[in-house]
Automatic annotation (TrEMBL):
Pfam families: 2OG-FeII_Oxy, DIOX_N. This is gibberellin 2beta-dioxygenase. Coiled coil: none annotated. InterPro entries: DIOX_N (IPR026992), IPNS-like_FE2OG_OXY (IPR044861), IPNS-like_sf (IPR027443), Iron_ascorbate_oxido_reductase (IPR050231), Oxoglu/Fe-dep_dioxygenase_dom (IPR005123). Catalyzes the 2-beta-hydroxylation of several biologically active gibberellins, leading to the homeostatic regulation of their endogenous level. Catabolism of gibberellins (GAs) plays a central role in plant development. Converts GA9/GA20 to GA51/GA29 and GA4/GA1 to GA34/GA8. Keywords: Dioxygenase, Iron, Metal-binding, Oxidoreductase. Belongs to the iron/ascorbate-dependent oxidoreductase family. GA2OX subfamily. GO terms for molecular function: gibberellin 2-beta-dioxygenase activity; metal ion binding. Its EC number is 1.14.11.13. It comes from Heracleum sosnowskyi. The lineage of its organism: Eukaryota, Viridiplantae, Streptophyta, Embryophyta, Tracheophyta.
Amino acid sequence: MVLSQEEFDVVRSITPTLLFHGIPVIDISNPDSKSCLVKACEDFGFFKVINHGIPTQLISNLESQAIKFFSLPLCEKEKSGPPNPFGYGNKSIGRNGDISWLEYLLLTTGPEFDYEKLASVSAPTPENFRGAVNDYVSAVKKMACRILELLAEGLSIDEKNVFSKLVMDKQSDSVFRLNHYPPSPDKNLIGFGEHTDPQIISVLRSNNTSGLQISLREYGWFSVPPDQDSFFINVGDSLQVMTNGRFKSVKHRVLANSDKSRVSMIYFGGPPLNEKIAPLPSLLMEGEDSSLYKEFTWFEYKKSAYESRLADNRLCLFEKF
Ligand code: GA4
């Protein structure tokens, strides 16, 4: 991958960072994990999941398909682009001029993506790629729903599936992303610029390569030690709204690694487009309107998100005060 001087100046970060050893580690095979999950979402909007039960083979199968794709010559990969809304992208993220040191594939979790576009990738057939994505996504989605159900219970909400039903819905607007960060000429390059995820929940898995960082508000950026056997979970903007700000949508970014290539896979669980997003009445104080956000549909939020730059605060448009 090559950067012009202008692009290089934009993607170079000089902020020093510390390794964060305090990431909550949650064993989701333990039903008592509910309160730790709630606390992790309140304190950081970020945690690591162990004992998730997702077979290693599902992960390694998809990772090798992804590596095969990203190893192709650029002109071949570009046949699967541009990513509007789905397909191969290189350096450029979104529609408003954000650039970073990575290439990626953005896919829907529904049937809309034409895997024939990836024909050159997935020898002997595109079905290999589609199969690997589908198997992985359905396992990860199930895990995401389990987490969302534990969270609802932890918040003492009667309707246990109040969050999970949104991502389980057939019309759920969920996205799947495969990112490849090639080794970089400089260890301070931004691999994926700072942002929060707009959806409800994001599930990230990466190979054993550092780079992911989270922002702990007034304390600044912290590096997350890599762990290829666990999943990292982010609270998204929509879950922050539904919990009336009790859970925090975490700001995160990725720095490129100077000597290793990083491959990550992220499932973004989103609601159906026509779903109304607003603080849950049971989480509001009785008698007065303590809701911090105006109600919006996921379609409205997504539309305004696509008009924003990566680092923008997208929720402020929907705040009441
Ligand atoms: C961030 C989370 C997901 O990767 C994503 C991104 C999307 C894109 O890459 O097209 C966005 C970004 C993400 C938020 C603001 C807009 C949209 C790029 C961008 C500048 C797929 C998503 O859903 O929102």
